[in-house]
Design a protein that fits this description.
The protein is of the alpha+beta class. It is 41% helix and 10% strand. The longest helix is centred in the C-terminal third of the chain and has 26 residues.
């Protein structure tokens, strides 16, 4: 028997003109093409390529850690296959490790230099003056210079004041009243966004006392520590219970749409003041038991 809630969602998605384009589609936005090309290049890089490209220096400890993490993930995934682990087991065992970078400090609490630095930076498509400023800031970033025995280990337990990201799991997203009235109660498995740091709050002119202001930047209900500008959404389904990726797309289409709308509204507010790129939300869908 078909799921009536999914039928309702499908009708609403069609009414709003939402559709998913498959890999290789010509519908890829021009504004994001270079970033997608870089993502493709990362996907083609093997551990052997990475090791041959990199010289492991004592002041760049994250490079060796990257190789070790990749080996650990592959080994742990193989173990879960042998255990015939279910969806919950896969997620609890691997998800935080896959998204490790969003959950840990990037700056040493002692010297404030970088414990980790990205080797695949986002494409810099800003106007000339802003692009040059960003390039200069990137060039000034230095790796942590603390002695090895005192250097943070890039783990969840390293305490620092520069956490940039945060996440929410199974929380309801706020929609406009016309959509909300028609919407079955579905909650995305997990959403990542930016953490409301003091510096970020100052930039956005949000002082933490006006919850109405926070709603301009977050799709979640009022709270003291809102998740700002969500940019990544994760949805998983067990293989035995799922009708396939189409079901995952149907359930996640409106949350993605709402996150894009939020980014677009901020872009429209600031477009006259500065350059602002096109909205972008990353969507990770996975399904299956072993």
């Amino acid at each position: 028997m078909p799921d009536n809630s999914n039928l309702e969602l499908s009708r609403l998605i069609k009414k709003l003109g939402i559709s998913f384009k498959g890999p290789g589609s010509d519908a890829l936005p021009l504004e994001h093409r270079e970033n997608f090309n870089r993502i493709g290049a990362i996907g083609k890089k093997t551990p052997k390529d990475y090791q041959s490209d990199s010289t492991f220096q004592s002041n760049e400890p994250w490079r060796k850690q990257t190789i070790n993490r990749a080996k650990w993930l592959a080994s742990h995934a193989a173990k879960l296959v042998n255990q015939q682990c279910n969806e919950a087991g896969w997620r609890s065992s691997l998800e935080n490790n896959v998204f490790h970078r969003f959950l840990v400090e990037v700056a040493c609490p002692t010297c404030r230099a970088r414990i980790w630095m990205s080797e695949f930076e986002a494409y810099n498509d800003l106007p000339y003056a802003e692009a040059r400023s960003l390039q200069e800031r990137r060039s000034r970033r230095e790796p942590c210079s603390c002695q090895a025995e005192h250097r943070p280990r890039d783990s969840y337990y390293d305490v620092g004041g520069n956490l940039l990201f945060d996440d929410r799991a199974k929380e309801s997203i706020m929609y406009g009243p016309l959509v909300d009235m028609q919407l079955p109660k579905k909650k995305p498995d997990r959403v990542f966004g930016l953490k409301k740091s003091k510096s970020f709050a100052k930039i956005l002119d949000v002082d933490g006392t006006d919850s109405d202001e926070d709603s301009r930047f977050s799709p979640f209900k009022d709270c003291n520590d809102p998740l700002l500008f969500p940019f990544l959404i994760i949805e998983a389904k067990p293989e035995k219970m799922s009708a396939g990726f189409q079901e995952i797309q149907t359930q996640t289409a409106l949350p993605i749409w709402e996150l894009l709308k939020l980014q677009e509204s901020i872009r429209n507010d600031t477009l006259r003041e500065s350059h602002s790129t096109s909205p972008l939300v990353w969507f990770f869908a996975n399904r299956g038991d072993s």
